[in-house]
Automatic annotation (TrEMBL):
Belongs to the ABC transporter superfamily. This is sn-glycerol-3-phosphate ABC transporter ATP-binding protein UgpC. Residues 4-226 form the ABC transporter domain. One of its GO terms (molecular function) is ATP hydrolysis activity. It comes from Teichococcus wenyumeiae. GO terms for cellular component: ATP-binding cassette (ABC) transporter complex, substrate-binding subunit-containing.
């Protein structure tokens, strides 16, 4: 069964910009799909519609077989990772990771178990009591992923998560993200404008241009014959 389904999905912003012009896409369970394309092509809008952060103007989006058009973000079975990390500066790493589960009233022991488990996957156990300001960019990025992993959602959504990092760290974190996916196997939709990043990470690349999907396929098929 497809884990995420888009049917004739349209987004028209106020003022008449048609950011997304009726796209269809099926994303399989455990698949890592990367949306790639030039700035302004509608990648981020598409991701935000899947997240529920942007209302859809037409069509239908399903997650885990359930139509989510009218379901608010926190009730969709998703977790999102942003480029600016959005960590709470006054909380420790452990508290940042625990926060989403505390909001959802998870028992304390379960929260601790999940935070410890995610910290081991990300290799950040020694950082759990630190505040975000005492972390490097790469470490902050790991904590942001940790917050997503502890939720154990059906789908991870990444919006240009590496674009604030320097080139060397970007390459390193790419490997890290791939490793995390191979461990947790969570269905992933990942947005980037970077073709190399798309090729390295994706099971399937979705090339968008001007609000439509231009090409879909595994990286080796797409970029060998441009
Ligand atoms: P990408 O992520 O590929 O760079 P976006 O999805 O951010 O593209 O934007 C797609 C189009 O929608 C662009 O033309 C952009 O200017 C427009 N757009 C994005 N957000 C808004 C908004 N809040 N209001 C109006 N237009 C927007
Ligand atoms: P409390 O002292 O009431 O547990 P804290 O602010 O210390 O509150 O922690 C908030 C949440 O973060 C708790 O639910 C706790 O389970 C989790 N947490 C705190 N420290 C750790 C840690 N070192 N490892 C795993 N989880 C932690």
């Amino acid at each position: 069964m497809a884990q995420v389904t888009l049917r004739k999905v349209v987004k028209a912003y106020e003022g008449g910009v048609q950011a997304v012009k009726g796209i269809d896409l099926d994303i399989a369970d455990e698949e890592f799909v990367v949306l790639v394309g030039p700035s302004g092509c509608g990648k981020s809008t598409t991701l935000r519609m899947i997240a529920g952060l942007e209302e859809i103007s037409g069509g239908e989006i399903s997650i885990g077989g359930k139509v989510v058009n009218d379901i608010p973000p926190r009730d969709r079975d998703i977790a999102m990772v942003f480029q600016n990390y959005a960590l709470y500066p006054h909380m420790t790493v452990a508290e940042n990771m625990a926060f989403g589960l505390m909001l959802r009233k998870f028992p304390k022991e379960e929260i601790r178990r999940r935070v410890d488990h995610a910290a081991r996957i990300l290799d950040i156990t020694p950082l759990l009591e630190r505040k975000p300001k005492a972390l490097s960019g790469g470490q902050r990025q790991r904590v942001a992923m940790g917050r997503a992993i502890v939720r154990d959602p059906k789908v991870f959504l990444f919006d240009e998560p590496l674009s604030n990092l320097d080139a060397k760290l970007r390459v390193q974190m790419r490997t890290e993200i791939k490793k995390v996916h191979q461990t947790v196997r969570t269905t992933t939709v990942y947005v980037t404008h970077d073709q190399v990043e798309a090729m390295t990470l994706a099971d399937r690349v979705v090339v968008m241009n001007n609000g439509v999907i231009e090409q879909v396929g595994p990286p080796q098929e797409l970029y060998h014959n441009p």
